[in-house]
Design brief:
The complex is a heterodimer of chains A (814) and B (118). Chain A is of the alpha/beta class and 814 residues long. Chain A is built from 28 helices and 41 strands. In chain A, a hairpin with a 4-residue loop joins β25 and β26. The longest helix of chain A is centred in the C-terminal third of the chain and has 18 residues. By secondary structure, chain B is an all-beta fold. Chain B has a 6-stranded antiparallel β-sheet with strand order 1-9-8-4-3-2, with no helix packed on it. In chain B, β2 and β3 form a beta hairpin. Chain B is globular, with a radius of gyration of 13 Å. The two termini of chain B are 18 Å apart. Classes of the chains: A alpha/beta (814), B mainly beta (118). At the A-B interface, α19 and β41 of A face β1, β2 and β5 of B. Bound molecules: siroheme, flavin-adenine dinucleotide, iron/sulfur cluster and FE2/S2 (inorganic) cluster (FES). Flavin-adenine dinucleotide binds next to α1, β2, α2, α6 and α9 of chain A. Siroheme binds next to β33, β34 and β38 of chain A.
Chain lengths: 814, 118
């Protein structure tokens, strides 16, 4: 027979506990739930958004009544438990219902503190705790009416903001001399006050309420200094207190809250308690993150596993007022033995304070720029040593001379363990795992499966970004993803998928299959389709030169005056007397200069189109081939001299550079792909701003990816470290191939990685060896079809004369 | 409008032009861009983009348009007019195809061109 479990309190902690329990021991108990409120379980946190009108009540429902039915749980909604007979193991409700238990869970939450003041009983004097109260507020909240909120803490301010959004004139009365004194220091509180005032709220500090006036319903609030503020609505938000009523009456030990040990057990071993009603090691809690941890521990215990223990963790608070970014965690006040790092930029409304003790981050207070909150939180939780990071700590994770680091990137670069959803303790890795393993596509699905962003919602943007970069192109499946161009409704990802799955090997087939809207496509889609079919079917697809952008079609760069520059390969940047002589002679014959390019090559400019085949033939005859300096292709491999020549060199960068260029030339890529190989960390080949860079170190090579310094500057991400040059090439091939398979046409590897996520790329290339080898193998298989020198074809073999020769009129009239 | 009867000059065979694509025709009066669409219509424009004079013959032809290879102006092949939001016009020439041969009226350059100055 199943044991009987009774839960009193159908709120956030209690129902989370049931979910956790069902996940690990679905059939162990017959479950009955007493809930004072007449609903299923809803997300209390979002009441602030219901009040402000940003959400409807329906949006907040976490477990509708059908959920209880589906899980065989008896929900006694609207019934208050009033007594526990611990001898008989029975819970008794106000309406006389009696339910037996083998185990009892108390999750009765907290109660708002009442104001012991005259007038506190008047109509329209409310607290802010449940949906019934919000509905009552909304009945009174009409534009132009007056509201007074007593209490300038998190709840009070969120209530005030909600009412202001409803058009009320709102005053906040706060007893202390600064707002949210438990979470903010004076400067941050000052900025917050200013922001609220800019939003039209009036904030009165050091304001002591003397009484509430009115007859029947509230009319005003009287202050100790004699002033009376008119009020149609008063919200009292002066704090909460654990709801221990039932436990106390039943003789269960309580102090401020119901006393529990680290397994969430009360003094009665059959009775457990979690949530805001409990006290653990002298501490009570008012935020969901620790409560959800308690729920998990209790579920583990009641499932019979018995190993989980509840431990305190760093508490972090965020204010949910649209447009105000505020984050506060840990000990931000500092004091004896603490150091403080502070950055203030009042003009931009930014204030950051980090508190350090013994080289560890003890607290963080961020106002106006909360970008790096998870980073700080992780360091606090893990007790990481921050002494090395100190200089850049205040500037955040992306600090390091970057022009292009966006929030998105910072997130992409974060390690998998980084906590994204603070409420539910969900890491970036867990979200990615759920997305990939369970095939999730929407924010709603991620919420349903992981709970990430399902509570306060402040991490929603981050979860969406993770979705976007995890799904990469597939996220495009959502209708808001843009079509490739106006000729189609399909996105890049959908087109690529069709090419793969339907085995489409020409532009025409793709256009037919996907019902292109235009007969020839356009200059945007044709080059993209050409690349996609070639990248997907290297052995079968035939290049369509007419679908290539000009420079690629003619295998040279057109210049200002319509002439072309010719940039031959110069493997690894190394040349010799013979090659220089060839180049010199060509230049002399055509009367043009020679330009040393930024990619360590020699460029012969000002060659007329009709002369190109001739010039190419001459180069080809001397074993100099196309440098692809015009292509969305593997470009030059920039190398420094390295070990053989340089006194600092740790590795033979020149040798590897040449080898790499010979290995990788000719490969078409979504956008140009540049590589660099440096012999030591002095990095003279600038490998850390290349699409792929190798930097020699004593023990081998560091592999860097996804850098650029073109339209924007983005330093590379460190992918991994390897021991040998062979491995560098394997990684390069794997990285190139992944980029080729997943990058959108015209998306540099730097943009691609920000979409795909460094974590994802690492997973595919570094963590999974089989996958890396498979990628590299696919790359090299494709290379067999790619390494055909276009200049030899066109020059020595005279292919495509109609491209290079112009038409002339035989008997041209004078 | 030019009212005199056209003088047709044979400039080559239809298959001398890539499909869809363009090619430069050198004439004493300057370069002309010949275009062939994917349904074998042929057009001729002065080989000078209204933007900054780029060679239109080198652009990508799609539908009845060419995109200049220099900075991406899209030009209507029949009229030479740049597709909005860009503005300007490349000078059109009268052209016809007979028995696979392409004929251009080299004197028609100013016909119908509102902006011969470019
Ligand atoms: C020849 C060269 C300049 C020079 O005289 O040194 C050059 C020339 C051109 N670059 Fe570059 N780039 C040259 C090095 C660079 C570098 C520096 C480097 O490679 O070390 C960069 C920044 C690094 C990077 O790419 O991250 C660079 C970033 C660009 C960009 C911006 C790309 C971006 O993603 O932001 C473009 C535009 C594009 O590709 O769409 C561009 C485009 C061009 C084009 C092809 C413009 C065009 O479409 O016609 C130029 C051709 C001019 C010509 O006459 O050949 N060039 N270009 C350099 C040839 C490198 C080589 O030997 O292979
Ligand atoms: C407006 C608002 C905004 C908030 N914003 C945030 C935020 O941004 N971040 C954050 O982390 N936290 C926030 N909180 C706090 C968070 O909602 C609470 O920490 C959390 O709901 C506590 O969960 P609980 O299960 O302990 O209590 P509750 O969710 O309150 O659940 C307790 C339930 O037990 C019921 N109950 C009590 N006694 C009995 C009885 N005798 N018989 C039957 N039923 C009973 C109650 O009616 C209630 O439904 C906010 C709270 C409010 C009110
Ligand atoms: S920076 Fe590059 S694209 Fe710009 S003018 Fe110089 S060579 Fe041309
Ligand atoms: S010259 Fe043609 S677009 Fe600029």
């Amino acid at each position: 027979m199943k044991e009987k479990l009774v839960l009193v309190g159908n709120g956030m902690a209690g129902v989370r506990f049931l979910e956790e329990l069902l996940a690990v021991a679905a059939d162990k108990y017959d479950i009955t739930v007493f809930g004072d409120e007449p609903h299923g379980n809803y997300n209390r946190i979002l009441l602030s958004h219901v009040l402000s009108g940003e959400k409807q009540f329906d949006d907040t429902v976490l477990n509708p009544e059908s959920w209880y039915i589906d899980n065989g749980i008896t929900l006694l909604a609207g019934r208050k438990a009033v007594a526990i007979n611990r001898g008989r193991r029975q819970v008794i409700a106000a309406d006389g219902t009696i339910v037996d238990y083998d185990r009892l869970m108390l999750a009765t939450g907290a109660k708002p503190l009442a104001l012991q003041l005259p007038g506190g009983h008047l109509r329209n004097v409310l607290t802010f705790r449940n949906i019934a109260e919000v509905e009552e507020m909304l009945r009174v909240a009409k534009p132009g009416r007056n509201a007074v909120v007593i209490g300038g803490g998190l709840l009070g301010l969120e209530a005030a903001w909600g009412l202001a959004r409803r058009g009320m004139n709102v005053s906040v009365l706060h007893l202390m001399d600064r707002l949210m004194e438990r979470q903010l220091d004076a400067p941050a509180a000052g900025l917050l006050k200013r922001s609220l005032e800019e939003r039209g709220l009036s904030v009165l500090l050091s304001a002591e309420t003397q009484g509430i006036v009115g007859s029947g319903k509230v009319e005003g609030v009287r202050l100790r200094d004699g002033r009376t503020l008119a009020a149609d609505l008063v919200v009292v938000a002066v704090g909460i207190q654990p709801n221990t009523e039932l436990a106390r009456q039943s003789g269960i030990q309580c102090e401020r809250g119901i006393l529990v040990n680290e397994t969430m057990q009360t003094f009665d071993p059959r009775v457990y308690a979690i949530g805001e009603c409990v006290e653990h090691k002298g501490q009570t809690y008012g935020l969901v993150a620790p409560l959800f941890k308690q729920a998990k521990v209790a579920a583990n215990q009641l499932a019979g596993a018995g190993f989980a223990r509840f431990e305190d963790s760093v508490m972090a608070t965020k204010l949910k007022i649209t447009g105000i970014d505020l984050y506060s965690a840990g000990n931000f006040t500092g004091g004896e033995g603490f150091e403080e790092l502070v950055m203030e930029d009042p003009a931009r409304g930014i204030y950051k304070k980090l508190v350090i003790r013994d080289n560890k981050l003890a607290g963080a207070l961020l106002y106006g720029d909360t970008e790096n909150e998870s980073w700080y939180y992780d360091m606090m939780r893990d007790g990481s040593n921050v002494s090395e990071l100190r200089d850049g700590l205040l500037f955040g994770k992306g600090h390091g001379g970057d022009a292009g680091h966006s929030g998105h990137m910072a997130l992409a670069a974060m390690p998998d363990e980084t906590e994204v959803c603070g409420c539910n303790g969900i890491s970036k890795g867990a979200i990615i795992k759920a997305i990939t393993e369970k095939g999730l596509f929407t924010l709603e699905e991620v919420r349903a499966h992981t709970k990430a962003s399902a509570s306060c919602g402040s991490c929603t943007g981050k979860v969406e970004q993770i979705l976007a970069f995890t799904l990469g192109g597939d996220y495009s499946a959502a209708p808001k993803e843009k079509p490739l161009c106006e000729c189609t409704d399909h996105s890049h990802a959908q087109v690529r998928q069709a090419i793969r799955e339907q085995h489409l090997t020409s532009i025409r087939e793709v256009m037919n299959f996907l019902e292109w809207k235009t007969p020839d496509g356009c200059p945007k889609c044709r080059p993209a389709l050409n690349f996609y079919v070639i990248a997907s079917w290297p052995a079968e697809a035939k290049d369509d030169p007419l679908a290539r952008v000009h420079n690629e079609r003619v295998h040279a760069n057109i210049q200002q005056d319509g002439s072309y520059s010719v940039v031959p390969r110069c493997w690894g940047g190394l040349t010799n007397a013979k090659e220089l002589r060839v180049v010199a002679e060509i230049a002399e014959r055509h009367g043009v200069p020679v330009k040393i390019t930024g990619g360590q090559r020699l460029a012969i400019p000002f060659i007329k189109k009709e002369d190109l085949p001739k010039v190419w033939k001459e180069l080809a005859d001397n074993d100099m081939m196309s440098g692809f300096a015009y292509g969305k292709a593997v470009r030059s491999v920039k190398s420094c001299v390295g070990k053989g020549l340089c006194r600092w060199g740790t590795q033979d960068s020149l040798g590897l550079g040449i080898d790499m260029e010979k290995t990788f030339w000719g490969a078409w890529t979504p956008h140009k792909f540049k590589m660099g190989v440096s012999g030591c960390p002095r990095n003279c080949a600038e490998s850390t701003i290349k699409d792929f860079g190798a930097v020699g170190v004593d023990s081998g090579w560091e592999i860097h990816v996804a850098g650029t310094c073109g339209v924007r500057v983005r330093p590379t991400d460190l992918l991994t470290k390897v021991a040998t040059a062979e491995e560098v090439k394997e990684y390069a091939a794997a990285f190139l191939q992944l980029y080729r398979e997943e990058g959108h046409y015209m998306e540099r590897s730097s943009a691609w990685i920000e979409r795909a996520g460094l974590g994802y790329v690492k997973h595919k290339i570094v963590e999974c060896e089989t996958n890396r080898k498979a990628l590299a193998e696919r790359f090299f298989a494709a290379q067999k079809h790619a390494q055909v020198d276009p200049w030899v074809e066109r020059g020595a073999q005279g292919a495509l004369p109609e491209e290079y020769a112009m038409l002339e009129i035989a008997d041209m009239a004078a | 409008m030019n009212t005199s009867t056209p003088t047709w000059t044979d400039v080559g065979h239809l298959d001398d032009l890539p499909k869809p694509g363009g090619r430069k025709l050198r004439t004493a009066a300057g370069d002309i861009a010949l275009f062939r669409t994917s349904d074998d219509e042929v057009f001729a424009l002065a080989d000078k983009c209204p933007h900054r004079g780029g060679p239109l013959s080198q652009g990508m032809v799609y539908g009845r348009r060419v995109q200049c290879c220099m900075h991406g102006y899209n030009i209507d092949l029949a009229s030479g007019v740049a597709v909005a939001p860009d503005a300007g016009q490349a000078t059109p020439y009268a052209v016809k195809v007979a028995d696979g041969r392409i004929y251009v009226d080299l004197a028609s350059a100013t016909a119908g061109c509102a902006c011969a100055g470019i």
